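Good morning,

Attaching, inline, the backbone tokens for the sequence recovery test we're adding to the shared suite. The designed sequence is right after.
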């Protein structure tokens, strides 16, 4: 860094080091607990969604029965403990229409006055258009007679739609498979283009810290064509650069004393999650490997204020308060 003051210029070189990184790190999703355990790295989970469609020529007709479906957010305003809801758990609209979750989910416990929440897909018990009811609130009939009945609930994130019963246009399986591959390629491309815009300057995203899930939406007839729809959800985890750099330094820099530090080439390290990577989980263990370059950080504003108005003879005394500065050259 270069500073100008009182007719002189000061060139500052921060302390630096290099080390080969090969370590295992535990992580925890931000907000999972009231305090982050010592030695565990907090991370944020970001999600992006996009929908792509493709028109295909119909090859015939068939009698079809399709249940309506949609995305809901399930809330836990009951306790701080998480609650597992098994596959096919029932959800009821105020009118008594029954939907079921497609897969088991675990609803996180509430944090203070904020209910825990998780997203799930629900499908109507009965096929047909009568279950295409748009956005709804839901209760869980299985909790009736239990205090949890009023404290666990769900709200639509997307309209409940796609229900159909009758004759509909159909497409060839080979055409559908080809279109599905094309749609998912487009979804992947579009979502990956959007991802960098969601990441703050002080955050790092690793290539392997990304997962894309695809969900096929109900097909729709359009004259002699069928509209194929698919939704893609991009989930990614991001770490604070400085917090991650400090954890790496603790493992790999001898005599490191928790000073502010930054690995300037974090993006060159190989991130490998342990086990099946699912960004929605609340804890994660991963490894990092590669040659790392460390640079100690200092408060530039405080240094500038300390130098202001000082004669050249006083500069060494000011710099002595900054052990993270390895070298400084003064030019008049």
């Amino acid at each position: 860094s270069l500073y100008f003051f009182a007719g002189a210029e000061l060139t500052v070189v921060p302390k630096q080091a290099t080390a080969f990184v090969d370590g295992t790190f535990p992580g925890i999703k931000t907000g999972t607990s009231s305090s982050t355990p010592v030695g565990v790295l907090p991370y944020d989970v970001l999600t992006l969604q996009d929908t792509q469609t493709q028109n295909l020529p119909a090859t015939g007709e068939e009698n079809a029965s399709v249940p309506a479906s949609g995305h809901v957010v399930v809330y836990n305003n009951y306790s701080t403990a998480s609650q597992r809801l098994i596959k096919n758990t029932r959800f009821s609209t105020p009118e008594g229409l029954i939907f079921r979750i497609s897969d088991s989910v675990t609803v996180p416990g509430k944090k203070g006055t904020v209910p825990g929440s998780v997203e799930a897909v629900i499908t109507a018990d009965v096929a047909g258009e009568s279950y295409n009811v748009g956005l709804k609130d839901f209760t869980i009939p299985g909790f009736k007679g239990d205090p949890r009945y009023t404290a666990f609930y769900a709200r639509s994130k997307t309209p409940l739609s796609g229900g159909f019963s009758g004759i509909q246009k159909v497409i060839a399986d080979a055409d559908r498979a080809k279109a599905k591959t094309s749609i998912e390629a487009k979804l992947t491309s579009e979502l990956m283009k959007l991802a960098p815009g969601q990441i703050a300057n002080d955050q790092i995203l690793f290539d392997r810290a990304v997962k894309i899930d695809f969900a096929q939406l109900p097909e729709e007839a359009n004259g002699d064509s069928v509209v194929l729809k698919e939704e893609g959800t991009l989930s990614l985890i991001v770490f604070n650069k400085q917090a991650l750099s400090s954890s790496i330094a603790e493992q790999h820099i001898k005599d490191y004393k928790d000073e502010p530090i930054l690995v300037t080439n974090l993006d060159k390290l190989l991130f490998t999650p342990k086990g099946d990577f699912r960004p929605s989980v609340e804890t994660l263990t991963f490894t990092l490997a590669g040659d790392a370059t460390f640079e100690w950080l200092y408060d530039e504003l405080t240094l500038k204020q300390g130098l202001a108005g000082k004669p050249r003879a006083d500069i060494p005394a000011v710099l002595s308060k900054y052990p993270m500065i390895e070298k400084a050259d003064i030019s008049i």
